[in-house]
Amino acid sequence: xxxxxxxxxxxxxLLAGCSSVPEVATRETAAAQAAPxxxxxxxxGLLASAEAPDRATSAEAELTARAARLRARAAGLRQLPxx
Length: 83
Description:
The chain is mainly α. It has 4 helices and no strands. It has helices at about 1-15, 30-35, 45-50, 55-80. It is flat and about 70 Å long.
């Protein structure tokens, strides 16, 4: 079974290599070709905004509070009588 699968896979790979790839340039619209290039931003500004702790600190606080609520709920459920 394994010996038959190897030539079959190899044949499929070779057939895939024979396919033609459509030109990417023909898919661009006239509006996309006429559009201006995007403005470049300095890397230092991008890195500074990525390292801003506001979002991470807020998310960490939310997750910590949620974990505490879930632990309290689990403790309450353990107190219930089985039945």
